[in-house]
Structures are given as C-alpha cells and as structure tokens.
Request: fold
Amino acid sequence: MAETLIKVDLTQSAYTNEMVHNRWHPDIPMACWVNPGDDFIIETYDWTGGFIKNNDSADDVRDIDLSIVHFLSGPVGVKGAEPGDLLVVDLLDIGAKPDSQWGFNGFFSKQNGGGFLTDHFPLAQKSIWDFKGMFTSSRHVPGVEFAGLIHPGLIGCLPDKKMLETWNKREVDFIATNPTRVPPLANPPFPSTAHMGKLKGAEKDKAALTGARTVPPREHGGNCDIKDLSRGSKIYFPVYVPGAGLSMGDLHFSQGDGEITFCGAIEMAGWLHLRVEIIKDGMSKYGIKNPVFKPSPITPNYKDYLIFEGISVDEQGKQHYLDVNVAYKQACLNAINYLTKFGYAPDQAYSILGTAPVQGHISGVVDIPNACATLWIPTEIFDFDINPGAEGPKKFLDGSVKMPISPDK
Ligand code: ZN
Reply:
C-alpha cells in the first residue's frame, strides 16, 4: 500500500495543519518530498475546510467567509524537478474519506459569492448528497441518482515570483475597472485569513501580503474545475520552481460542466493516490503554457442525452456578440425551465445541473451575431422518463421535498 504523506483530521481546523495552505506563493515550504516514479497518497479537506455541515440548513453557505478558501494539501516537492520541466501526474485513484461519505452542493447568496445564475437564485441554498459506493443521491433533490466522476477541482504547481507578480497585477488592475461590483470582478490578496503551510512569523506575514487567492484557474492549472480530470487521468503541469510544489484539493464526487452553482459541484473531503514523473525541459519541447491532460479510461457510461440549446441573446432579449457565456446561461435556464415541468422546483433543477455529469459544449462561435452553446443532460440519471412526447410532461414529483434556503441577514 502506498504511503499517506499528508493526512487531514476532519475534526481539527485546517489552520492547524502545516501541510495545508490556502494561497499560492513561491515561499510556501514543501510539505514533503517524493522521487520521480513514486506513488503516494494525499488526503484533503473539502474546499471550505469543513465549514459546510451535513444538515438541513443553508445558514453555513450564507455565512461562510470566502476569503478562507481553498484549503489545499501540499506543496509536494518532487526531487529533480526544475523550472521549465513538465510534471507528469497520474491520478491513480481518488475517493471520499471513509468517515465522510457525503458531499454538499449549494448556491452562494448574491451578496456573498454569487454564482453563474445568481440573478435567478440570489439566496443561499444547499443540498446534501450521500455516497453509496460509486453512486450518489440527495435527500433534498429527489428522483435522481448517478455514478461519481471523482476529480480534484483544484490542482497545480507553485508559481515563481515573476508569475505571481503577473497574476496579482493583472487581477488588481481588473478589479480597479469596477471596484464596487457585487459580486466582485476578482479577489485580491487578503492576508488576514491566509494559511501558508509551514511558513510562520514575519516571513509568513510578508508572503501573505502577496499570496494569490486560489479562486481562479491560471496558467499553472489551479482551480480549473474540469470534471473530466477524473481518477485515471494523466496531467502534464508546467513547473516554475525547483521541486515543482504540487498542491491539490477541492475534491468533487461529481460535477456538471461549468460548475455553475459555484458552491460548487458535490464537494467532499477525501484522498488522492498519485504517481509523479518529470519530463525535462518539457515546457519548451512541447510548447506548453497551460496544463494538458489525458482522460481516464473509466468514466460513467451514459449514452442518451436530452440536449438544450442556448444562443447569445439574454433574458431581457438583448443581443450579445458571439458571447458563449450568455449562450451557456440560456441553455442552462432552458434546461431548468424544462425540468420544472416534471415537478422539480427551479432550485432543485439548478442543483442537478451543478452536480450530475452534465456536459456543456461550445457548439458554434462564428455565426454572427449568435454564439450557440449546448447543455447535455444524461436522461438515464432520472428515476422517470424526461423525454418529450405527444402526451405532455408527467409530474413525477409532488413538491413535498424542498432544498434548504437561508434569506440574507
Ligand atoms: Zn469545488
């Protein structure tokens, strides 16, 4: 059995764990070291460090301080890795912690984080998903069960000083274009809740001033939230610092393309079994700037989909020029409206799009003025037939099961 190099105790605050951090900074010391060719196990908190609880209230989703996220395990140093190399990471297996066989999905309040459809779902809501082996279902969203497509929402290597400066400058400059926006355009460094692993004292305080937040995906990968980066995948990461410094977390039991609900997929605490190798000077050899990856040989085998189209004309009827964001939003809203005809509340339908292995495709980006995006819902995840027919939709759900909601204070 491979050695567990980083352990997390879900009964303890993530801030007490020196092998965990919640900012990106080259000064964060390696939590541990491995050799190329080694395989090993890393445990992780859920992305909020255990703040969201397995209960029937969305108060925790409403009240969370989002400057604490994401709690990442690492950085793992790989001996011999140098800037310009590629770090090859095999996700040999991923699972939930044995003492934590559940996950959560939620919508943040528009006042605290928001989400893709926050104008339609402005209040904090939550659904809890229980794991039964490789399957999941929710006591808050009836009529649906699906196989997990387990993946790390967030994984990548430490930036070097120059890359960190680039990130901070471009994001702070961007925020300055509309500093009072709700939700904000981006999240600048925020020292008071920074956790920098083994870095302590004055050195920690100094680094925390510029420690990049973990929210966006960036050149190194990071919070990409790619559902297909699932167990069995092989990822090639750019290396910027000696030892690479691989960190990971934000494990998802399952997620729809886009992670549209933002809080988020089915979020869970768990473990990853990894193997690492190095391709010397691989970044220039292959012309790689952002990570590339190969998919798993094993994925949930859904063959039948009902596919919703959306175009870049928004809810107010306003025309947008080839805007895939607007088009995908319309595809999602069309799917939610459709699912309500079978008895789902709109929030439950939104939750399904965020959690189930729903596919999102950019279908057309050249036919001016409209982009076309499509949302693919696997029909086999439902307990009943969701296909259109001459007899019209049948209400399979009576509306008695509801998702917790917490009004803003
Ligand atoms: Zn997540």
Remarks:
- Residues 47, 153, 250, 252, 264-265, 267 surround zinc ion (CB under 6 Å).
- The CA atoms of residues 68 and 193 lie 6 Å apart.
